[in-house]
Each structure stands twice: as structure tokens, then as C-alpha cells.
Design a protein that fits this description.
The structure is a single chain. About 6% of the residues have low confidence. 45% of the residues lie in helices and 11% in strands. Helix 9 links the parallel strand 6 and strand 7. The chain is globular and about 65 Å long. It is an alpha/beta fold and 408 residues long.
Length: 408
């Protein structure tokens, strides 16, 4: 191969420096002995994985370990968005477009990062989003995440495709988690899971509404093609992620899976009439839907596009957040997820009106890399970065964060 041009070399340096790009893609295209020495050096740096969560400089150090440690299909499930990944990329780029405006000569020795949601005070606006199948990333799965959330006093949301029962997770967490539900046009199944979460002590139910007509997860499919293991040996029936999951015990899965996904305002009313749990709707990306949520008694909205894993060509959730906040007009809290990778991203979300944020992929990287200790390290990194940004902007408490502290 001829020596790379300066422009191509610079482009590769930029891409290799990005935590979004796996070096595997480049090593397939170029042989190491044919590369420019500078690019060889960058690749070698990428290969020096941290040996302990204590060595992590940022969350991407944990992602690199998880990527190398997990089976391809399992890592692909975390990494994937849909189609050509534009929605996932939009989530990330949305934050990068926003810049911070610093204030000086302020006393920022004492920083209060606490928030109150549904009357419960949390030390940070950073929460654990509901993601499924945690035992695919670590043997302790959701229990490791719950124990990390307990140690760090973090709000935890549990997916209904959890690989550990809600009862066990609540015990490990030391208090009830928020329970997430996927609904289909088979009310007996949904009712059974609602009642079980309620009986376990859960006080908040999250209805995820953004999976209707979900796009094809092409990245996941490509990673699965790289995985030569017999997946059925561990997963049994691999046709559905629901089969064999503890929260579907006693549910007629043939009826449940045979029914279409169903989301309408009658379902919201039925849930509200059925349970005293607070109702959160996750997956709102339009102001009109946000207004209807308020009118129909929803208690909190999470602006989300499922981390870019469902809708194709979505705007970034941080770009959607302001219109949703304006639509609810302070009547109910709004949270946001998708694309949050730095403490500065948390700050930007709060500046645009979010009450709190929840993360998915980052804590799964920590889990896949080092189990509970990895999850705790991810939380610590976010907390430290967020506090630093508050100091730089002169905000000593959450209620001092405002959109005037941002520019684009």
C-alpha cells in the first residue's frame, strides 16, 4: 500500500481518537505493517486496555474493555442502533452542538447536585435507565447494577426483559426500583406484570412507547454474524428476547407475542385506573404528544428515542427536549436520555429544562468490563465531570442551571 496522504492520515487520526469507532474496522482494511507509523502508534494506544476500573480516565476506557471482553453478539446488542445509525449519531451530535458559557469570580467551593423527584431526594440528577438482559454482560447482571445503584444512592429503572426478577433486584437495591413495561394488545399479560411489580413494592411504572414499528438493527445483525457460538445453548428459544425472562413467568407468551404492540390513550387510562403507581411515559419526542400526556394524567415524561434503537432518522433527544419542556409548561417533570456521555451533557440537559437524565449504554460498558465496580466507576466519572461543569459555570445548585448558560 502506498504511503497514506496527509489528508487521509489526518482523517484516520480523527476517527481513531473517537471512542465511537472500533479500531477493528481499521485493522481489517489496513495491515499494521503497511500503516503510517503515527497511525500504528494510535492503534497501539487503543490496545492498551485498563486492568482496573480505578484506571479509567473516562467512560470510554470502560467501553473499550467491554468491547474486547464480551462475545460479539452481546456487545453488538449494546452498540446497535437502527438502519444506518443516524438516530444514535444525532443523539450524540446534539450535545456537541451546544457550548457552555462560563461565569467567573463566584464562590463555587460548595456544590449541591441533589434533585427531588416524586418527593424523593437524590444526590444527583443521573439515573439508571431500563436496559434488558444484564446477565449477558456479567454473571451478576442486574444484581450488580442494583448494588452499584445502592452504593451510589442512584435512581434505578428496571426493564421488564430483565434477566433477574424484580423481587431480587429490589432486595439488592435496598428499595423498590421503577419498573418498565412493554405493552401489547393483550391486557391480561400487561396486568399480570403490573400487579407483580406493585406487589414487589414498586411505586413507579414506566410505559415505554417508542418501539412500534422499530427499525432494523443492522449493527447488531453484523455483530451476530461474527459470533460463532451456539446461542441456543444459553438462550434456549432465541426467536424472542421475552421467552425465559423472569417477569414473563405465568404469562401466556403465545398470546402475548401474538398480539400487536398497542399504545393509545385508552391504555393510559386503563393503567391509571388499575394501579396507584406513578405513571411515567418513556419515548416521547413530540410536543403534541407531551401535551396529551399531561391531559391524560401521566406523572412524568422521558424524552427518548430508545437510544437510537427504534426510530430511524430521529432528531437528537437533546434537540427535542426544549419543545417537550415548553409543552408541559411545568405541570409534570421531564427527563431525557440518549447520547449522554459526559458530565457536561447532564448539565446541558438540565439547562434546557430536564429534571434529570438517565443513562443506558455507559453503565452497561462498566458492567461488561468490571461488573459492579465498573458501574460504580461510570457513575463516579459522570458525577465528577458534572460537578466540574457546575463550578465552571458558577452554578452552585441545580436550580441555578439555566439555558442562558448555553450557546450553540
Amino acid at each position: 500500500m502506498k504511503k497514506l496522504s496527509d489528508n487521509r492520515r489526518n482523517l484516520l487520526k480523527f476517527l481513531l481518537a473517537s471512542p465511537l469507532i472500533s479500531t477493528a474496522a481499521f485493522t481489517q482494511e489496513f495491515q499494521m505493517d503497511e500503516m503510517d507509523p503515527d497511525i500504528q502508534y494510535l492503534l497501539n494506544l487503543q490496545k492498551k486496555l485498563i486492568a482496573s476500573p480505578d484506571d479509567a480516565i473516562n467512560i470510554f476506557d470502560l467501553e473499550a474493555v467491554a468491547r474486547r471482553s464480551l462475545p460479539p453478539a452481546h456487545y453488538g446488542y449494546i452498540a446497535t442502533g437502527v438502519a444506518d445509525e443516524r438516530s444514535q449519531i444525532s443523539n450524540l451530535l446534539g450535545y456537541k452542538k451546544l457550548k457552555l458559557r462560563a461565569r467567573r469570580i463566584r464562590d463555587v467551593r460548595e456544590i449541591d447536585t441533589s434533585v427531588t423527584i416524586f418527593g424523593r431526594k437524590w444526590p444527583s440528577p443521573l439515573a439508571i435507565a431500563p436496559t434488558g438482559h444484564h446477565r449477558a454482560y456479567h454473571n451478576n447482571g442486574e444484581l450488580a447494577v442494583a448494588r452499584a445503584a445502592k452504593n451510589k444512592e442512584r435512581l434505578m429503572m428496571l426493564s421488564n426483559v430483565t434477566s433477574t426478577s424484580v423481587e431480587e433486584v429490589n432486595e439488592a437495591r435496598g428499595e423498590p426500583v421503577w419498573f418498565q413495561l412493554y405493552a401489547r394488545d393483550h391486557w391480561p399479560s400487561s396486568l399480570k406484570m403490573i400487579r407483580r411489580a406493585e406487589a414487589a413494592g414498586c411505586e413507579v411504572l414506566i410505559l415505554t412507547v417508542d418501539m412500534v414499528g422499530a427499525g432494523k438493527r443492522e449493527t447488531q445483525d453484523r455483530f451476530m454474524m461474527m459470533d460463532r457460538r451456539n446461542c441456543s445453548a444459553c438462550h434456549g428459544d432465541v426467536r424472542s428476547p421475552f421467552r425465559g425472562r423472569p417477569m414473563y413467568e405465568g404469562v401466556n407468551l403465545d398470546d402475548y407475542l401474538g398480539a400487536q404492540e398497542l399504545f393509545n390513550w385508552d391504555l393510559i387510562k386503563r393503567i391509571k385506573d388499575t394501579t396507584n403507581m406513578k405513571l411515567v411515559v418513556k419515548g416521547i419526542t413530540h410536543a403534541l404528544d407531551a401535551k396529551l400526556c399531561v391531559e391524560n394524567g401521566v406523572d412524568l415524561i422521558i424524552v427518548s428515542n430508545h437510544g437510537g434503537r427504534a426510530q430511524v432518522d430521529s432528531l437528537g433527544t437533546i434537540e427535542i427536549l426544549p419543545e417537550v419542556v415548553a409543552a408541559v409548561d411545568g405541570k409534570i417533570p421531564v427527563m431525557v436520555d440518549g447520547g449522554i456521555r459526559r458530565g457536561s451533557d447532564i448539565f446541558k440537559a438540565l439547562a434546557l429544562g430536564a429534571k434529570a437524565v438517565d443513562i443506558g449504554r455507559p453503565y452497561l460498558w462498566g458492567l461488561g468490563a468490571f461488573g459492579q465496580a465498573g458501574v460504580e466507576k461510570v457513575i463516579d466519572i459522570f458525577d465528577a465531570e458534572f460537578k466540574t461543569v457546575m463550578q465552571q459555570t458558577g452554578a452552585t445548585s441545580i436550580n441555578q442551571i439555566s439555558k442562558e448558560m448555553l450557546t450553540s
